[in-house]
Write a structure and sequence with these properties.
With 341 residues, this protein is mainly alpha-helical. Helix content is 72%, strand content 2%. The chain is built from 18 helices and 3 strands. The protein is globular.
Amino acid sequence: MENEKLLMTETDQNVSGELSQKLSYEHDIVLQVANDELNQARIDYEDDLSCAEYRNLLYRITDRVLNSEKLVGSGDEIHNYSVELARRGEYLLAVKVLKKGLVIFPKNTDLIADFLQYSCYCGEQQEALQYYNRLQALPKYLWTWRAFSFSIDFLKNSLESCNDNEENFYNKKRNEMYEIAYAYRDAYPFSEDSYACISDIYTLFGEKAEAQKALEDALSNLKVCPKCAIRLADIYFDRGDMQRALNVINRGLKDSNQAEEKVNTGYLYLLSGLSKTALLYEKEFVAEKKEVISIYEDFNIALEQINHDRFRKLIRNKIIAIKTKTNFEIPDKFESLISLI
């Protein structure tokens, strides 16, 4: 409410004439310029994005966008603008911009997907349902990966409003999720996220074997799928299948070098060290020096990438036990490990 009040009452008297000229051509708003201004503001205030000056500038630019008679720009530029607002926690403003954009691009599945994603954070679920139905009416060849992934998230959120006695509603949403997830995999057969979505849905409904199989299918069918490898390694580790966990961890580490998105390799090294330690316990600590050094190396790399007290304590306890029972010293090059001990 405070943000809305600011939008309605903030004047443009502090906005430079240059900014006003860039942003508007008579009553039109150029979205590319608006995006550039937001990006520049983020750079200028990167040390304190919560400060009033940055917020006021964001609100003034967005006020012009929302009150313009015409938006000049593409669907991608509207998407980029709404994403920037959402990153700042301004979900209500983001959905308002998206609604304006969807008047111009009513079949843009990225914009519909963004609306579904952000609506749950600002109480716009009922209107989001209308956009979800609009999306369902569009042929799947128009759907982007966001349309598939975010619509599944929207259905998951809708289950929270389902009472225990609303079995028909529950089953309907469940079937919709499965249908969308498999359509996602068919449309994007080389995307690991499509397999991960299938696995997540099976996990949500307690079908653990099917969830595991979806991840195993990803590793079989895809050349690069580090995130699915992490999830599958977790499953094998939790049930005590350490050797299979290690095999998948090694696959995940290899794939992470080729992945476009950031992968939590620190966690993979932690899991690798824990798996090797468990196997060492099974052998009653009878091992060659290179096996123990390999564990030290994994934990050292994990320490360099993970800053979490719980994990640090876990690694410390494991290393003390290994060092005591095997009598193999920690090499000097593993500085993070030595400083921990």
